[in-house]
Amino acid sequence: MIMDGNGRWANQRGRPRTAGHIAGARTVRQMVEHARRSQIRVLTLYAFSSDNWSRPQDEVDALMRLFRRHLAAETPKCQENDIRISVVGRRDRLSPELRRSIDAAEEATRECQSLHLRLAVDYSARDTMVRAAASVPPGVSMTREDFATLLASVNHDDGSAGDVDLLIRTGGEQRLSDFLLWECAYAELYFSRRMWPEFSTADFDAAVEDFRARDRRFGGLSRQVAAARA
Ligand code: IPE
Ligand code: IPE
Ligand code: MG
């Protein structure tokens, strides 16, 4: 999910952008609970892109504070509900305190299995690809699977999430903004006009319903895909 529209939601109400991020954090909790109930196995939330560092410093600081506070508060609830937390992206530009909260959340929920909740922080798909490509020794040939494993490894990711099935973006924009470019090669894209703070569980269900009706062919024919699944 690309959680977009917090700032506009706040502006429409004459409030500061950070009020939108606080409201957005409530939506995160609702969506995680709903994904767990709906038996979704992997949910990846785009929380902060590498390009988001270019925002005003007070907004960046507020986002980092919110992120740390929510990680600490939600970790015990995730443990109780069998939700594994992982954070994907670069860590070297995050504060030591935030890095410690991430390590603690990942460690505490390592064995949880019902839902894998991935938070993308300081994430850039293009930087990921550049860093992965740079780590391939000259002359080494790679399969797509090998490269996918490498992409995961440069982002503190164990690679278990695999390709994206359904990508949902709120906020009305119809673009990927450097999110999971490799993993979305055959993703179904769903764009909602709702701003993230007002995205509801009914909206989430509508996106999943829409996804279920799609005909995914992966370059082949529907009947081949159906036969491979059977
Ligand atoms: C998404 O909402 C949250 C982050 C990018 C951190 P925005 O902050 O991008 O909100 P808009 O798009 O300006 O409304
Ligand atoms: C994408 O939203 C990043 C996150 C939701 C974290 P942006 O608001 O940063 O993307 P653009 O600038 O509209 O492409
Ligand atoms: Mg935005």
For this entry, give a set of tags.
230 residues, alpha/beta, Undecaprenyl pyrophosphate synthetase, three-stranded parallel β-sheet, 8 helices, globular, binds 3-methylbut-3-enyl trihydrogen diphosphate
Q: How are the SSEs placed, and which strands pair?
A:
Blueprint (H helix, E strand, L loop, with lengths): L5 H7 L4 H21 L4 E8 L7 H24 L2 E6 L7 H13 L6 E9 L1 H10 L9 H10 L12 E4 L18 E4 L9 H12 L9 H8 L1
Parallel strand pairs: 1-3, 2-3, 4-5
Magnesium ion binds next to loops.
Class per helix and strand makeup: alpha/beta
- Which oligomeric form is depicted? single chain
Annotated CATH architecture: 3-Layer(aba) Sandwich
| Name of the CATH class | Alpha Beta
**Average of pLDDT:** 97
Strand coverage percent: 5-15%
Number of helices: 8
How much helix is in the residues? Answer: 40-55%
Radius of gyration: 18 Å
Overview of this structure, please?
- The protein is an alpha/beta fold and 230 residues long.
- The longest helix is centred in the N-terminal third of the chain and has 24 residues, at 57-80.
- The model has no long low-confidence stretch (mean pLDDT 97).
- α5 crosses α6 (144-153).
- It has a three-stranded parallel beta sheet, sandwiched between helices. A two-stranded parallel ribbon has the order 4-5.
- The chain has a single domain (6-229), classed as Undecaprenyl pyrophosphate synthetase (3-Layer(aba) Sandwich), CATH 3.40.1180.10.
- The chain has eight helices and five strands.
- Bound molecules: 3-methylbut-3-enyl trihydrogen diphosphate (IPE) (2 copies) and magnesium ion.
- Magnesium ion binds next to loops.
